[in-house]
Design brief:
Layout lengths: L5 E6 L14 H12 L6 E6 L11 E5 L4 E4 L7 H15 L14 H4 L1 E5 L15
Parallel strand pairs: 1-2
Antiparallel strand pairs: 1-3, 3-4, 4-5
């Protein structure tokens, strides 16, 4: 079975309070460090997003894959390598689930408390999804 391609989006405009007039924003610093740390990771696309509208929970990222649940996380510190190490563990666990669904207890502890949203895939047969009728 082929490894699923995961798309990791990073908010490039997040401010983490460590910027000055000559420094790069926290989101852009996080993106650079993720690119460096995950340079040899196969089946991972890292992309920047101009704004993910989670300004009070900077720095923000999301992970998604085709026909899988999408997750949005915040409060990621670009200067903490342990946050990126836990992100690597999260990606392994996400990749191991056919539909990407990870219960709270299945995520690394850091990613249990800083989740901003979990969105179902459009075409999902998950028991978590209920079709509502008019």
């Amino acid at each position: 079975m082929a490894k699923k391609n995961i798309v990791l989006s990073v908010c490039m405009t997040c401010r983490d309070g460590k910027e000055s007039s000559s420094d790069t924003r926290g989101g852009a610093r996080l993106a650079k460090k993720i690119l460096d740390d995950f340079a040899h990771e196969e089946n991972l696309t890292v992309r920047g997003v101009d704004c993910m509208s989670n300004c009070k929970r900077a720095c923000a990222i999301s992970i998604t894959a085709k026909d899988c649940f999408t997750y949005i996380f915040g409060d990621i510190d670009p200067d903490r390598s342990d946050h990126r190490e836990l992100l690597a563990e999260l990606l392994i666990r996400y990749r191991g689930k056919a539909d990407g669904f990870l219960r709270r207890r299945d995520r690394p502890e850091f990613f249990q408390s800083n989740i901003l949203g979990r969105l179902p895939p459009i075409d999902s047969s998950s028991s978590l999804i209920t079709e509502l009728q008019r």
